[in-house]
Design goal:
By secondary structure, this protein is an all-beta fold. It has a single domain, classed as Beta Barrel (OB fold (Dihydrolipoamide Acetyltransferase, E2P)). The chain is 0% helix and 54% strand. It has no helices and five strands. The protein has a five-stranded mixed β-barrel with strand order 1-2-3-5-4. The radius of gyration is 15 Å and the shape is globular.
């Protein structure tokens, strides 16, 4: 049997857990501006499939790329790294 290709993996913070089996995760990316060398912070929000409804707001989680599960969900919860206080 052949091995699957590596899937993309990201770490982010849960910002919404209102929906059933879905959480919204915010990824933060910092980079330097090419001309002014100021640090620019950009955020991306992704919809993530959470089958067991484990993740809560403020949790740091690892997500993995998967097949399209709905119109906006293309990621699934891999593990919860740190729980919110």
């Amino acid at each position: 049997m052949t091995e699957r290709a590596r899937r993309k993996s990201r770490v982010g913070v849960v910002v919404s857990d209102t929906r059933d089996k879905t959480v919204t995760v915010e990824l933060t990316n910092s980079s330097l501006h090419p001309k002014y060398t100021k640090t620019i912070t950009r955020q991306t929000r992704l919809h993530v499939h959470d089958e067991a409804n484990d993740a809560n707001i403020g949790d740091t989680i690892r997500i993995e790329e998967t097949r399209p599960l709905s119109k906006t969900k293309r990621w699934r919860l891999a593990e919860i790294i740190e729980r919110a206080q």
